[in-house]
Amino acid sequence: MLKIIGRRNSSNVQKVLWCCAELGIDYEREDAGREFGRNDTPEFLAMNPNGTVPVIDDGGCVLWESNSIVRYLAASHGMGTLCPEELSARAGAERWMDWQLAVLGPAFTPMFHGLVRDPPEKRDHAKIAAARDNVESKLEMLDRTLGDSAFVAGDGLTIGDIPVGIYAYRWYQFDIERKALPNLERWYAALSARPAFQTHVMVGLG
Amino acid sequence: MLKILGRNNSQNVQKVLWCCAELDIPFEREDYGGQFGRTKDAQYLSMNPNSLVPTIIEDDFVLWESNSIIRYLAAGHGAGGLCPTDLRSRATGERWMDWQLSVLGPSMHPIFWGLVRTAPQDRDNEGIATARDILTTKIAMLDNFLGRTDFVAGASFTVGDIPVGIATYRWYNMDIAREDYPNLKRWFDALSARPGFREHIDIGLS
Fold first, then answer.
1. How far, in Å, are A64, B111, B113, B133, B177 from residue B102 at the CA level?
2. Looking at beta carbons, which residues of chain B come within 8 Å of A108?
3. Which of A67, A139, B173, B198 has the greatest number of beta carbons closer than 10 A?
């Protein structure tokens, strides 16, 4: 059975859990990371020298980097659905995964740390506000894309929706001001209606 | 013919150029970004709202995010070669593409910008030195991994070698102290011998 190692409140672990639920993949999960520790042990570092979660073990194939894990599972179990078969459609989906890694994630980090990790007395409000503005400008871009299609890469949910969908949850949970972005909100409502998203992503901010 | 929009000294554009050379894909390139500007023009933004390079145009298909571009080209033109057929090998190589985006790139960025794109009198030398000490721990991970395999996905060169290969060229060509990484050096020498690398990557740093 597929083994997933990582705490369920990690956004990167959630990508894998959500993906497995959408594809009906059975798995066992073990906690690791942050309050659970384990990710600095020699045994863990031998699996993933970065010391980060998630790590999967699929019958002896050990993988890390959540986006690669999701692409791997979707190609194996969701070809034609979560993983578009046609190559330009697949690339159209995949680029939103890269975009989350390179653009949206880094924009979010100062806001997430400021609002969730730092105790209130340590918050740098100017920094948080600047991050909020930056994130909103990225999400406006996504909103415009979602004006042309129901999901990021077409009519159905694909791998491209998974990383950004998890960040959308966080965006809508924060106690911040938000511009009305009707396409983003429509798409997010569609994600929130999915049992897999409810179970694995809508679990509060850890 | 495939059109590539982006200046040839951008590492992300170089990924696409090298990949096209490996796959014998003819292309036309136009200068965008950096000193050439044009990426904030309405016409460019309508293709790539991130205002970054590269963007590719293939007939009426427009794609951005360099890692997704090269996976797309490899799947279309290099199935079984640059794009492994075996999904485990493919994922094993692909994770190093995600890792370049999320780990190696951000570690290298302050050093590259500090040394190559900042005048000497404006440099933060202490910041660069600190960043270098962090970067070498990431390079060490890659070196360690390459002690067990010839290329990142296995016995042959694949698309997964491209992003980290370009970053490693920067590692070896920036004016910084470097530890000995024999596995990295062996792998890098193999990349350096490839005509695509010589033509598009081995052009100095600017």
1. 13, 16, 17, 18, 23
2. none
3. A67
